[in-house]
Amino acid sequence: MSEVIKIKKGLDIQLMGKAEAVFGQAVLPEHFAIKPTDFHGVVPKMVVKVGDKVKAGTVLFFDKNRPEIKFVSPVSGELVAVNRGERRKILEVVVQSDGLNDAEQFGSADPSQMSKEEVIEKMLNAGMWPFVRKRPYDVIANPTETPKAFFISGFDSSPLAPDYDFVLSGKEVAFQAGIDVIKKLTDNIHIGIDADASSKVYKSLKGVKLHSFQGKHPAGNVGVQIHQVAPINKGEVVWVMNPQEVVALGKLFKDGVYDASRVIALTGSEVEKAAYFHTKVGAQIKPLVQGKVKDGNLRYVSGNALTGLEIECDGYLGAYHSQITVLPEGDYYEFMGWVLPGLNKFSVSRSFFSWMCNKKEYRQDTNMHGGKRAFVVSGQYDKVLPMDILPEFLFKAILAEDIDKMEQLGIYELAEEDIALCEFVCTSKINLQSILRGGIDLMIKELS
Prior knowledge:
about 450 residues; CATH 2.40.50.100; 3 domains; 7-stranded mixed sheet; 5-stranded mixed sheet; 19 strands; globular
């Protein structure tokens, strides 16, 4: 293992409500939904219709532009709804579980005895391929491409993130099986681990290169780790996967079934007792949060507080998420709040005395404390983005739709999670994540 890579820029947001290393009791949800909107650039084409019976692993829809990319049901049961939005855009494909957990049989297989093409075909047929994403662009990987490397971030440094040492405990065999599958895609496998954690699951792995990272968030972002170890240049591709998805991949080849099981962390200051829960991809969160949160006007977030998606209390867990965050809504106005000492307000700029309380945890709400203002080059973003990139100038190039400048300024290395802290500290309250995604979509359109 190489020496520790120290991330000097970044920001740890100390929020109340981190999950304890215990499993809570919850009723398994009855409804599950696969949301095409979780997968950037996917145009869904339905295979089944409302009323059809499905098994875990049954194809629900595929990508109209790439029919080989299939999306499958996480449970057995009945397709009960296809919820649509504007212009009949498919938002959710909802399956009601029958509790039997019947599964499509894809057959167990030894990846060492298979060709790369056979491994990819099995992943495509079983619905595992959508969990292989590529950089640049943070979209579903193209199975016909050859990546220069495969990266897995073995820890999450975002606010209230789950502890993967705890989540993966007991899954060492399945994780190694997943790594053995990935080795058929590329021999160049990198895993970033937390230098301050035990990382027992990762240190016993064979066939991978481990890199220790130390520092504030976003040290756990796979994009930051790629930037430090193997920066992406024009024309290069890196594939990435989350740790729990690697476990599911290993189970597919060991057991021959699609296993959508996930361990998720229920977190946030408004949770009575933050803990971990066993569930599945796309689970309805209502049974998980019911009776476990405080009274009041709350915001439910699938994912973390920086990059997660706001959902209703009966909404569904995102396909790539291992966390639910419950925060108080910031639906109030504060008269002359800037003149108060602000001991209970998290401060980045030392505007409040709370900056002196380094270890204090905060009950942070969603109030933005101001509105959108003019774009000002202030140097704020550089303090929290540990990449050799000029973010202010990149965002201006995106807004100007200057493809050449966007390339030169490093858009290939970024995804929304990498600039989430820039958005958090932005005095101008600009939605930088949506601007970046707009720039990425423009790059895909122009260069495809």
